[in-house]
Amino acid sequence: MDAPQHSGLAGPLDYLADRPLPAGTLVRVPLGAREVPGIVWEAADAGDGGDDAGGVAPADGGSAPGQAVPQAPGGPSPSAPALRPVVAALEALPPLGAAWRQLVAFAAGYYQRGLGEVALAVLPPELRRLDEAALGRRLARRAKAADRATGRRQAAAAAGGGGAADARDAADAASAAGATGPAHATGAAGATSAANPAGPAAAPAPGAGPAPPVPACNAPEPSPEQQAVLERLRALAAADGAPPAVLLYGSTGSGKTEVYLRAAAEALARGRQVLVLVPEINLTPQLEARFAARFAGHRLVALHSALTPAQRLRHWLDAHLGEADLVLGTRLAIFASLPRLGLLVVDEEHDPSYKQQEGARYSARDLAVYRGRLERVPVLLGSATPSLETWQHAQTGRYLRLDMPTRIGRAPLPAVRLVDMTQIARRAGGTVLAPALLAALHERLARGEQSLLFLNRRGYAPVLQCGDCAWRSGCPHCSAWRVFHKLDRTLRCHHCGLSERVPRACPDCGNPDITPVGRGTERLEEQLAGLLHHPDGRPARVARIDADSTRGTGVLQARLGAVHDGEVDVLVGTQMIAKGHDFRRVTLVAAVNPDTGLFSSDFRAPERLFALLMQAAGRAGRDAARAGRAEMWLQTWQPQHALYAALVRHDYPAFAAAQLAERRSAGLPPFSHLALLRAEARDAAAATGFLDAAAALAPTLPDAPALLDGVLIYPPVPTAVARVADVERVQMLVEAGSRARLQRLLAAWLPALHALRRERAGPGQRILRWAVDVDPMEI
Ligand SMILES: Nc1ncnc2c1ncn2[C@@H]1O[C@H](COP(=O)(O)OP(=O)(O)OP(=O)(O)O)[C@@H](O)[C@H]1O
Ligand SMILES: [Zn+2]
């Protein structure tokens, strides 16, 4: 669905129902000539005859704005045009709770999208396709399976388990109450509050009595720092009102995950559900294993985009029906419906992948903070290198910062060594690794330790070139080079996906001598295989992990398993290997060419590079017994750079202070608030023209002087890769001193841009699409 983003046009529409439907009920409604899924957003007033379903947020609401009937809280007003009836209602499904609807409404408003668009986009696609009968069958099947499981669990509880079964029963009962639908006009609210463990059937209320026992299964004794953090968290959970978001600022390997596990155990013991967000799908299996091992008696489900549609629906229902106690997922899981949510964890909160980059461009991290406040549950943001926004909030006291500076087992952080590449004689083909680094790698091989080589560029070489003429392997459809992949002898564009066999000779002059320029992970792997050997002459076992080498289910997990089992001596990879992994035998991490991150036009590039390198360094020396020898090597042509100087001292606070000072003087976030207007067209002039016209519209808006006070609208510029798949992309930055100002302007301005787009239909004016990105991550 190519739903245009549209603000202000996409509030709920009114429909008729033959009986009162509780808010949060999934329905199918007519929209224009089509039938679309929708959600009852506001139940009609029970006193008005009960024939109005209230506002419905249809999936495509607003794409037919002429249909929009303003929401009339007291039922249809006499002057309103005839309402169309709801086609079907999925009454077997407990309605989506008030908190969930408020989260979605907030996200739609804040990120300037249609309500129905966001609401339906964040539900499992399969759910939208089910009809009442299919859903009924599915729920009946689940109920049967659940009965069997409850029997098993009650037996287990009798044998000494905790209050999980009780809380589950309460949730089941609540779901059942919600599912009766028409008889309970306030069913939605009833379901959410009944599902909260406040009733006698539930586990002890927060703060009642001493801390509940934590299941002891394979849990280490917490360190003093972990202990202190957990005590503070306990106090927060027991206090009245919404707790502040907590930044868990802990070194790599300080045991943050162990804190999540224990905080989760305490929430579970209170009968609550726990949501844990991780930045990348490929980090979910290992974390899932850790949680599953710890919480054997609890239901744990994953929610991410790599699930099959059927799995995603099943897991979503587990969460929504209150049957899953723990939900572990990537950014989309922030919208999971959790009737008894008690704790939100955002691991590696600084990670850019929490920002959705298409459609509704939301930040799952920011929404987690909002959701925590809304539902009055603790939010734990964990990082060794927090985002500067979060760090600033911790400085000003908006978030509570809890520190864990010490690595488990008092292991020191790896020593950081800068290799000054300007001092190393250039050889033909480029120096792969500095001699000192090569020697350090051989030391590890001799001791039977592992090394990680990190290069954030996949493929064999980023470009091929002809030795005779000016030909280079450009992409015909993008302003980018096509990357040479040697293994399957292709030239591939990483932007549009175009893949072709490598030509035998230069397509322009016929010269057979075309050569790779630069180095990607494939080439690094190949070169290392010839360079590295054990003391007895055996070649080193080199493996590679990047998006190319790990296609296919299970490949990545198998390869990671080989590293954990010691079957690999040197692991080469992209940022996929830098994050999260708890490798025990790695004592050397090297960044082969990190400088590329220093000179980006994006003001967040240094922040991202610093975090990535700190995180990569954190993969070394995680086993205290070997940590004394752990090293992080950086090959750089910029040895004096302040970023590296801070990295050598492991000094995130100094780096953050310097960056924040720069941002303050440049008026950049977190000291200002940004939105990007993007336009795409076949022709760059049309995209630029649209944005210029949009900028010209702003001062003509009603109340423009007040709206534009303290707001800067910059001239449109091409994006970093300006053309992708023959589409030109231009963006325009809008900067405001406060969030509220930015929101006010966008809410008034964007609706006018829909009209503008329709007007600009002339030759050379047409754009393909436009969108707004609030709090953009990449500039
Ligand atoms: N209290 C403890 N006693 C002993 N071992 C512990 C303790 N806490 C954590 N560990 C172990 O220390 C290692 C590092 O812990 P963990 O993975 O939780 O760190 P982290 O802070 O999440 O790391 P990173 O941010 O680098 O991913 C793990 O192997 C974990 O099992
Ligand atoms: Zn391309």
Automatic annotation (TrEMBL):
Note describing how the cofactor binds: Binds 2 zinc ions per subunit.
Sequence ranges of Low complexity compositional bias: 54-72, 179-206
Keyword Metal-binding recorded: yes
PROSITE patterns linked: HELICASE_ATP_BIND_1
Pfam families: DEAD (PF00270), Helicase_C (PF00271), PriA_C (PF18074), Zn_ribbon_PriA (PF18319)
UniProt region (Disordered), positions on chain: 45-80, 143-165, 179-226
Required co-factors: Zn(2+)
Role summary: Initiates the restart of stalled replication forks, which reloads the replicative helicase on sites other than the origin of replication. Recognizes and binds to abandoned replication forks and remodels them to uncover a helicase loading site. Promotes assembly of the primosome at these replication forks.
Family membership: Belongs to the helicase family. PriA subfamily.
Descriptive protein name: Replication restart protein PriA
Organism encoding this protein: Piscinibacter sakaiensis
Lineage: Bacteria, Pseudomonadati, Pseudomonadota, Betaproteobacteria, Burkholderiales
